[in-house]
Amino acid sequence: MDFFDVLKERTSIRNFKSAELKKDDLNKILMAANSAPSAGNLQSYEIVLIKDKEKRDKLKDACFQQHFVSQTPVVLVFCANKEKASVRYGERGEKLYSVQDATIACSYAQLAAAALGLGSCWVGAFDENEVKNIIEAPDYIKPVAILPIGYANEETHQTPRRKLDDRVKEDGF
Ligand SMILES: Cc1cc2nc3c(=O)[nH]c(=O)nc-3n(C[C@H](O)[C@H](O)[C@H](O)COP(=O)(O)O)c2cc1C
Q1: Is residue 127 in contact with ligand 1, taking CB distance under 6 Å?
Q2: Rounded Cα distance, 104 and 40, in Å
Q3: N vs C: which end of the chain shows fewer Cβ within 10 Å?
Q4: 111 is in which domain, residue-wise?
């Protein structure tokens, strides 16, 4: 699919079929995430791949009962690795770059899923400590985005955006 068509096709999906993802597709999605840029190419993020139904159910609870989180066969948890980024970049690395690295990787994964005809929804509303417990994360790991991926069981709906004229400030505010 043409890149700009992928951008149009990608809309948040919150109702999924239970069908398993093809191994090759999942691999392509993970490779896409892995190709994302990162601060100093330190790649200060980790991806936790959750397939286990019990863990997906626990994640759904940690995401304040957003039911679709346990509806897909695969859920990716993108985590900032604060330690990795702080070694070179100190506080800015720990607090900003590691989070940016994880979110860019999640964006790449989401677009790759769309290019493969798969649905996903970025989930940011979750109890961080609960998620850390579920994925058994050490202290220096901060979960920043959860991405359930699967076959859509609903039509895609494009949501409105602000007008470019309103958003883009030429030469500053
Ligand atoms: C940082 C972030 C957090 C989000 N958290 C949630 C969430 O917890 N639950 C949810 O259903 N959608 C969540 N979304 C998806 C947005 O609601 C969605 O992207 C937005 O409404 C635009 O719709 P679209 O993705 O279909 O273009 C989140 C998106 C982002 C980028």
Answers
A1: no
A2: 14
A3: C
A4: 19-153
Domain contains 71: yes
Could you tell me if residue 173 is inside a domain? no
In angstroms, the Cα distances linking 163 to 6, 16, 107, 172 are 20, 31, 22, 17
Q: DSSP string of 12-56? A: B---B--PPPPHHHHHHHHHHHHTS--GGG---EEEEEE--HHHH
The angle subtended at Cα 167 by Cα 39 and Cα 163, nearest 5°, is: 130
Is residue 9 in contact with ligand 1, taking CB distance under 6 Å?
Answer: no
Domain count, the chain: 1
What would the pLDDT profile of 33-76 be if each residue is shown by its tens digit?
999 999 999 999 999 999 999 999 999 999 999 999 999 999 99
Q: Decide whether any atom of ligand 1 lies within 6 Å of the 15 Cβ.
A: no
Work out which ligand 1 atom sits closest to the CA atom of 125. 8
- With beta carbons less than 8 A apart as the criterion, state whether 134 and 55 touch: yes
The pTM (predicted TM-score) of the whole model is 0.98
Distance CA 146, CA 61 (A): 13
